[in-house]
Amino acid sequence: MRAVVIREKALGPEHPDVATSLNDLAIVYFYQGRHAEAQPLLARALAIREKALGPDHPDVAFSLNNLGNVYLRQGHYAESEPLHMRALAIREKALGPDHPDVAYCLNGLALTFRDQGRYQEAEGLLSQALSTREAALGSDHPLTKSTREALDTLRSRE
Fold first, then answer.
1. For residue 95, which phi and psi values (nearest 5 degrees)?
2. What are the distances in angstroms from CA 114 to CA 61, 64, 125?
3. Rounded Cα distance, 71 and 83, in Å
4. pLDDT confidence of 157, banded at 50, 70, 90?
5. Which of 19, 79, 106, 125 could form a disulfide with 45 if both were Cys (CB 3.0 to 4.6 A apart)?
């Protein structure tokens, strides 16, 4: 929290670097399972980035994806899904469909579908994310392995 306060004082409360600090703190909370505390920080980071950078900036997609992940962990699928879909659209447009950041969005949306029991849609997205990650990062990269494991787990549910 100290970094947020320092950046707010030095740069003003609406500076994109404040959003970065808010995001970083929220991610710490996320991994601690403190999703209710992470959510407002990520929402504020998103608002700052949208205002400062515009609605179609890749950093906005980053915030959308993180906020979508928090809602996913809370079981709030109606909130998670559109955030992941918007993040995916922004990244595909800005970075192209074969960029590894696009795979990150595909992965998040796939998990949202999976947790809603929409297994066929989830499998298609995970397959696409896996192909993208293998091509961009290699088959031994931790993100590629994570996507492969999610896909294998999904396929073995039957």
1. -115, -15
2. 21, 19, 10
3. 9
4. confident
5. 19
Q: What percent of the chain has pLDDT over 70?
A: 99
> What span, in angstroms and rounded, lies between the C-alpha atoms of 147 and 107?
7
Sole residue written with tokens 């809603």: 116
C-alpha 150/C-alpha 30 separation (Å) is 20
Q: Give residue-wise pLDDT tens across range 75-106.
A: 999 999 999 999 999 999 999 999 999 999 99
pTM (2 decimals)? 0.91
Q: Which amino acid is at 20?
A: T
Decide: 29 and 40 in contact? Cβ < 8 Å: no
Q: pLDDT tens, 60-79?
A: 999 999 999 999 999 999 99
Find out whether 150 and 126 touch, Cβ atoms under 8 Å: yes
Instruction: List Cα–Cα distances, 10 to 4, 23, 24, 64, 98, in angstroms.
Output: 10, 18, 18, 26, 38
